[in-house]
Amino acid sequence: MIAPVVAVGELKGLFAWLYEKLQETGLPQPWLDVVTYAVLGLVVFGVLSLLALFLVWWERKISAHIQQRFGPMRVGWHGWYQTVMDAVKLLQKEDVRIAVRDKVVFFWAPVVGFVAAFLAYIVMPFGDGLIVADLNIGILYIMAVTTFTIISLLMAGWGSHNKYALLGGMRSAAQVVSYEVPMVISILSIILFVGSLSMVDIVRSQSGMIFNWFIFRVPFGPIAFLTYIVAATAEANRTPFDIPEAEQELVAGYNIEYSGMKFAMFFLAEFVNMFTVSAIATTVFLGGWNGPFLPSWLWFLGKTLCIVLLLMLFRWTYPRLRVDQLMEFSWKFLVPVTFANLVVAGWFKYAGWYW
Amino acid sequence: MGVVKDLKNLVKGLGITGKHLGRHAITIQYPEERWTMPERSRGIVVLLSDKETGELNCTSCELCMKACPSGAIKIEFHRDENKKKVLDLFDVDNGLCCFCGLSEEACNFSAIKMATKYEFSVWNKDELIWDKDRLQEVGRDVPYVDTRRKKKARLKPMAEKSTETGTQESDASAAESEPRPESGEPSEENKQPEEDQGGRPPEGGGA
Amino acid sequence: MAALRTEEFVVSMGPHHPSTHGVCRLILTMDGEKVVHIEPVIGYLHRAIEKICENRTYPQCVPLMDRFEYVTSMACEHAFALAVEKLAEVEVPERAEYLRVIMVELNRIASHLIFWGVTAMDGGAYTPFLYGLRERELIIDLFEMTCGQRLTYNYIRIGGVSRDIPPEFVPQCREALKIISGKMSDYEGLLNENPIWLVRTKGVGVLSPEMAIAYGASGPVLRASGVDYDIRRNDPYSIYDKFDFNIPTQPNGDCYDRFVQRLDEIRESIRIIGQALDGLPEGDFKKKISPRFKAPAGEVYSRLESSRGEMGVYIQADGTTKPLRVKLRGSSYNHLEVVPEIATDVLIADLVMIFATLDIIMPEVDR
Fold this sequence. Notes:
The complex is a heterotrimer of chains A (about 350), B (about 210) and C (about 375).
Chain A: H1 12-24, H2 29-66, H3 82-91, H4 103-119, H5 138-145, H6 148-159, H7 163-191, H8 199-204, H9 220-235, H10 260-285, H11 296-317, H12 323-351
Helix pairs in contact in A: 2-10, 2-11, 3-10, 4-6, 4-10, 6-7, 7-9, 7-12, 9-10, 9-12, 10-11
Chain B: H1 2-18, E1 45-47, H2 63-67, E2 73-79, E3 85-93, H3 102-106, E4 112-114, E5 129-130, H4 132-138, H5 148-154, H6 161-164, H7 171-177, H8 186-190
Antiparallel strand pairs in B: 1-4, 2-3, 3-5
Chain C: E1 9-13, E2 25-31, E3 34-41, H1 49-53, H2 58-66, H3 73-88, H4 94-123, H5 127-147, E4 156-157, E5 160-161, H6 169-191, H7 195-201, H8 209-214, H9 220-224, H10 231-234, H11 255-278, E6 298-305, E7 310-317, E8 325-329, H12 331-342, E9 346-347, H13 348-357, H14 362-366
Antiparallel strand pairs in C: 1-2, 2-3, 3-9, 4-5, 6-7, 7-8
Helix pairs in contact in C: 2-3, 3-4, 4-5, 4-11, 4-13, 5-6, 6-11
């Protein structure tokens, strides 16, 4: 049984106090661990939900200010709890149900999507010692778990009993699958230098000076970062790869038959996914929670929000790629480039030019 | 290399949108802040009253009714014992009005004007038809240039005593803002029309 | 194992759709993603303008002509005024001609800005729409200052214009033009060189010059296919022969060229307005026309270069105060005919781009 990491750093006192309280309840050991992990999981879930709500508000504000308008202004100061009100509104909407046999698939698709979005945060290092479980296969686990979203896309497309939703779901599934490959290979080029798959080790190997960050390992670092960002944008279904969500395309997305809270789950899952890919970028390329003076979780949050801002700028600047151009770009351009990058990184490692 | 040029252009695009993040937004929060409309702005039709006596300037000449392409104006009058026209009914259907301004331009008596007001939403379409009193009341605080005295000097005397007391505003602005018959035949404008002059649509075809 | 069977399906890209500009219904027969057959169904915006004009006097027709193509209202009014003036041999004072040219060219810039924004939005870039509208606000503020309205102006009348420009018009106009020409580099930098945009629009929807001429295409669509024809120069009306401006053309006739062509035309319009403001003479702004204006019996067709192409008005008059028949020619009608020709066997996304770059406006099609 993997013991929870003993907190080091800022929140040591808080976690030690919580663990003490749990031990005082007198539960036997296996149950104590179960309860501990359950509590940690709930904490992470709560933090992430709040983050997702914040991200939705932030996207609306950023897009508005790029377009020189204000965005939400009425609900609270600069509309800060607009997303909460939108969620309340979605709760009140009629839950449209489909009168066909595959009700189970239709019902469980948003659930699977929502759960899959949160699974990656078990190994996400939010700060120095702030990690639910430091698995020794951390990054591999994340890559495996992010593919669960494809299942939910296909389930949504199939269960909607609508040929356009099915087409849309298949297109999104094809897109996510084809951009998984460059994403994984770009991360792999960096993992060569860490020697371990554990997320904490990846972050620790970038400690020290800013130039230890993997993004600065020229020449393969920046290229890996660029290809990762492009692949991550496609994984998160954001423009320029947002075929599933575009209204201007005739074939709408996989979520056209969903209304109310089910739609809200898809919507929030998308923003959580966006945060996931940005968090992975921060951990692998930008040094994770390393940084002077400020608490480590603040550094992590700041760096991740910078990547999120970059993704948002992509959405509001670039036009959309056509479906066949999207697939062509992935298989004919990104995959060869990432493989070449991997070879170069391997050569650097073999020749020992980087430690 | 093509890829480097593409990357450069992509970053240029990001720069153009990104620099707007530092600028202030240019929209205003309606209804707390309202834009001041330019003075020539064509909003709803109002009836103007004399600045001193407070009575309507309208003489029931029906020129605006004939000028309106949508048939939004309805006028009824009768003649009293002095053979003077008295206005009974002046209805403007704001649902039909297309805000073209032709009625304002047709009027010779500074009786009708397009005010700068634009907020008149109602819940029921019938409330869009405004009668004489409503039009006069809304038009009370609309500033206007009174051009009647100047026109009256060129018209056939029609013994309209109420208009004689109207104050005379400056002529210069009147001359450039209203297309009036400076050199034309004023009597032609005032003649009682016998044949169908305007393209007034048949009654009952409106709202 | 049975062989795989594929089937074409029919989809109605219905009247309500975010990227048909206005209410146009396209019945598409699709083979997967590819469009095999297109059938446009029009008439959803038919307002019987031509019929209504038969019951209105000539001055009363002008607000109706505004609504013929409300994105470029000034050009519609100008076309009608030109037709009636040609018929009745009304002479327009020179100041009025200059004011007309200024207004029509400003409206051309506003219309092209909308085109730029909307086409970018159809391609997936949402921000240029807001930028285009922001600059268009400068122009329609000028219109509001002059005639009182922001969309349907009722300004260009038979015999001149309805009101003279206020004194603050000229400095504000120059200021607006300076801002817009300053922003042109932004507009071009945002999309013209963007690799995603290039890959979306280059080589897509090529309209050959022969086909363009055969279908009666005009305006920027014709010039983007390489045909050097502009009514302002080839068949001059009003006082366009006094101004010095270029007619840009593009070589290929694909979506990218149609997109870039209108940005070039904005620059030329800015030049024309600058020259017109410099040379604006004093004088009357209107030749007095009685409300019971009677045009002599006869027929006339007059055309002008609006922002979408050739806009024509044909009037048959019988000597009374109302026209006998008014026929309007809008260029979008011809451009809509081109769509089934060049948009077959393409993917849906390309159809959307083709429809957007042809700048088809449904009020002009349906009247």
